[in-house]
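Researcher: I've got a protein sequence and the SMILES for pyridoxal-5'-phosphate. Could you write out the 3D structure of the bound complex as structure tokens? I'd like something to compare against our soaking experiments later this week.
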Amino acid sequence: MTSVYNRWGVPVILNAAGTLTRLSGGPMRQEVAAAMAEAAGHSVDMAQLQAAAGARIAELTGAQAGYVTPGAAAGLLLGTAAILTGGQRASIARLPEKAPRRREFIVVRSQRNSYDVALRTAGARLREVGLPDRSSGAGVRDADAFEIADAITEDTAAIFYVAGRQAAPPLQEVARVAHEAGLPVLVDAAAQLPPAANLRRFIEEGADLVVFSGGKVIGGPPASGILCGRADLVGAAALQHLDLDVYAALWRPPETLIDADALGGPPRHGIGRALKIGKEQVIGLLTALELFVDEGDAVRHASWLAVVEEIAATLAADGRLIARGISLTLRDRDRIDRIPKLALTVEEADAEVAARLILALEDGSPSVHVDQAEYGSGTIVFNPVALPPGAAQQIAHATLSALG
Ligand SMILES: *Cc1c(COP(=O)(O)O)cnc(C)c1O
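Model: Sure. Here is the predicted complex with pyridoxal-5'-phosphate in place.
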């Protein structure tokens, strides 16, 4: 199993950190890997493959149209390019050196994050609104919809919204002020699954374009994602992503994806051409998406819970933890719409002790990577999503040995 990595001298890790890109995501299900291997043995017309994928994504999301991107961040870039150019050939050719004048994307200040470089890469300028004083503890508020409405000018191209449990104001209110001004809303929902119902939620709440990561809980290839929403915008995104090294007279893109007659001919390669996706990724994403929907939140949650409960039980059975004042907490055990996790807080919640434990786990054999987000408050977190079957005992024993 690990020989392909052994050959290149790269250690295989146990990833209890979640589907992080820097840790290569999780192991793909056998069915997904097999479908990708089969896909690799044939050639297809990529536009036809994308049209077929888009039809299925549209069914599952309730959107007018869908498209497979090489990741959610790529979906943000393509969606931004679609909004900025409107699928116009001349605008596509000018991007990003000369973005149209309407290039501002309004974003709530508390929703700014490192992934929004994807929007800026496509030529958007972010304009922040709101005063998230709840973040500093100096107040209780974030942004209000009226502040978004007030920031709209003739340079505004869209509203950018990063979905999340803390996201404010509610998406419906943002969509209302955007649509009153005739502007689209682009939603980053990369990590908003589970619950599976969120595949439909943001479109229902008024989003014009939504991106999801394919390499997170959907379980597709790490370089896969979904862009879905309004058919004209998805078509404009496709137009800037597909390979367009074609003769105008011989170009016949699928009608469901691209309205070739309205265009008057193929544009040049767009900004998205650098974000190539392979047929294997498209098939892998589709296969994983079907399995994700079929499995359902309850079954998925139960299998994750079994993993963290087994780690917890094995750790708790070792008397040293209690003796040293180390505590274990199972989180979201009863929330099937969330990922259950095991938190381990070291003695006196000491950040340095937690950091040493994290590094000892990484240096162990097998090497175990955990969620580091709370190490500053002395807690390490075990996330079951990217673990291979049967890893719980190995993780528990690696932790006991790292604790010394
Ligand atoms: C993970 C994530 C992304 C990037 O997703 P990829 O599929 O890795 O490109 C973008 N935005 C947010 C909020 C994320 O959590």
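Model: The first strand starts at residue 13 and ends at 16. DSSP finds 17 helices and twelve strands in the chain.
Researcher: Great, I'll pass this along to the crystallography team.
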